[in-house]
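Service request form, structural biology core

Requester: graduate student, group of Dr. S.
Request type: structure prediction, single chain
Budget code: on file
Notes: please return the result as structure tokens.

Sequence provided:
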Amino acid sequence: MAKAAGQPKSPLLWPPRQRPTLQLRNVIERLPKDDKMLRHQVRSLLRAAWRLPQADEGLARMKKLAEMIERDHPKAAASLREGLEETFTINRHDVPPSLHRCLATTNVIESPQSGVRKKTSNVCRWRDGDMILRWVAGAFLLTERNFRKIMGYQDLWTLAGILGRTNATRSQQEKVA
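Core staff response, request fulfilled:
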């Protein structure tokens, strides 16, 4: 998969489509609505696979699940196979379990963007690029007031080490947390 221009090079910031929570929703949406038992079973199997500590074992279980539903529900199986390798990035990089929930969802990304969208929604006419930058920067600063600590913030130092940011000073780590 080619990287888009300006996309972060962090292995943990994979495209939002491959986030486990979004992948779960996409697979479930492609299953028949009236077959609640199948939907529940697939949801449980996917969640169990993501909870496995070994990425290879979880990947094997997901591939087996895709084979199982392939015959009756090919679109759901195709959705499951799409981005399958990327869904186990957290497991492969030995990220502490306390950070799994935070990094496995898009909430950390979507929450600030939603705040900016709300604060800039009444602007009718954007005059130039500088005005856009000022408004967005101001909206991010106002939105920042509502931020809470992420679950597992105590283990952010290990995430910095995984990403290769070992030269960060203690004061910088405290500002992030």
